[in-house]
Amino acid sequence: xxxxxxxxxxxxxxxxxxxxxxxxxxxxxxxxxxxxxxxxxxxxxxxxxxxxxxxxxxxxxxxxxxxxxxxxxxxxxxxxxxxxxxxxxxxxxxxxxxxxxxxxxxxxxxxxxxxxxxxxxxxxxxxxxxxxxxxxxxxxxxxxxxxxxxxxxxxxxxxxxxxxxxxxxxxxxxxxxxxxxxxxxxxxxxxxxxxxxxxxxxxxxxxxxxxxxxxxxxxxxxxxxxxxx
Length: 229
Known about the structure:
- By secondary structure, the chain is α+β, with helices and mostly antiparallel strands.
- It has one domain (7-179).
- 24% of the residues lie in helices and 33% in strands.
- It has four helices and 13 strands.
- It has helices at 68-72, 120-131, 183-204, 210-226, and strands at 15-19, 24-30, 37-47, 53-54, 59-62, 78-81, 89-93, 100-104, 110-115, 136-143, 148-151, 161-164, 167-176.
- The strands form three sheets. It has a five-stranded mixed beta sheet. Strands 2-3-9-8 form a four-stranded antiparallel beta sheet, with helices on one face. A four-stranded mixed beta sheet has the order 4-5-12-11, covered by helices on one side.
- α3 (183-204) runs antiparallel to α4.
């Protein structure tokens, strides 16, 4: 069976986010003496903490420490892909390989780094990054159970704020050409929003259905909007 290029859309509960923080090439000398050679290292920020993003259907930010548990897990298996294409693998961190470096930097952001492998598409990508033609990153993830907190705007569901406090799975990090959300990713995020808000409204006003009905209508509108993304 052929591996889907945009494999992340086939994984239940997976979401994707983007950062505009620049991906940068760094030249590093490896080896010693006559065997010393230059190696191009690609370094980027996959996720930034405490930076609010308006997703159109709600606001979102990532709390400090959200990645700590997943990065420390012996079960971590994260790929670095170009444009989330499973056929264009650049590096990987798992129990068997550590060609992908993942770390929390001094500012608390999730940083990734890999040495350019000897693959034609990887060299082409390094050239595109060096020229600035490719300069953004993305990461795919799943939120842990009870790994999110919500602040609700009583009048406007689009102004609700989700804070991601714990990531359960870090599926991939990717330099990307176009930062764009796929419909399936939008749907996963909005389903989570819908379920959380309905529960909160029912707990606040169990005998009043008007607020929930207003939210249902807004939810349908947002899903229709997402189809054009």
